[in-house]
Amino acid sequence: MSEKRDYYEVLGVGRDADDAQLKKAYRRLAKKYHPDTNAGNADAEKKFKEITEAYDVLSDKEKRKMYDRFGHAAFDQSGADGPGGGGYRKSYGGPQSGYREYHFEGGNMDDLFGDLFGDIFRQGSGSSGGSYDRRSGAAHRNYGNMGSGFGGFGGFGDDGFRQKGSDVRAEVTVGFDEAVFGCDKVIRLQDPSSADGRVQSLQVHIPAGIDTGQSVRLKGKGMPGVNGGETGDLLLRVNVAERPGYERKGMDVYTTVRVPFTTAVFGGEAVVNTLYGNVLCKIREGTQSGTRIRLRGKGIVSMKDPSVHGDHYVTVQIEVPKHLNAEAKQKLREFEAASGKRARTA
After folding, report:
1. What is the Cα–Cα distance from 272 to 295, expressed in whole angstroms?
2. Which domains can be identified in the chain, with CATH numbers?
3. For residues 39-50, average pLDDT
4. What is the mean pLDDT of residues 23-29?
5. pLDDT confidence of residue 69
């Protein structure tokens, strides 16, 4: 009988390796030598048993402590008691105790083989686990509601498994105000479950405050599942049309208001069009072009909290008179002269 290799050597790690390093090493080797991906390869099967045995011991704190102290003798079933006479070989049900299964409990199967089998294992994350029979080298799976195996997939079994249908993606364009206040729209899409390309009409609720790039999920409107699995969803990406004169940045909106030259000079009021109606805005005396006025709470509602709104920012633009009669021009010249004189004497 060949001598057993050191467990640390088997996994290719140092004796000071932590749990994460052990798991990473085992995962890499298990994927490489797993019987399901090495059908008929006796050498791979032997190595898989070896690395599984090594990981089983080193990943258990108590077993590892015993192994570090006594080596393979801590689990030797051929003699009486292990070193120190403490009955170590039987107290832990060591690797050579005859029939034994290595279990992948719950989500661990996904964690260990996720990169290799992708979504297939993730579909069965609610499973009751699987096992590997060390005596026969046969791999056993039990995936709960997924059935007893992976029919037609690399020898995983003959039974089908339940799989959720794929999600379907589509786009819809809504008006600026429809996105601000929310709306219901009827869209027409090709039925993904129809073989003849039948078009279906769906009523979709667009929530208030939605922005371009965000999606609405329609549960159960995607591709049908496999072997009784649930139907996928429809992810409807929203594009928001522009509204002339309005710019949106998140929950805030930006517009401009034009005020007469005299209003900017003497002060006054200006009517601002907001999403919620007209607002009379005060223009301070001497307001400069480009001045920004903030209207609190006049922006877009939050999708998460309907009591929260963004703000409306209004940029003041001063209108310069284009057509002046002779009298008006004379008055402006007098104003210019008076302003210049005042500036020189100030």
Report:
1. 10
2. 7-146 (1.10.287.110), 168-240 (2.60.260.20), 247-319 (2.60.260.20)
3. 88
4. 92
5. 87
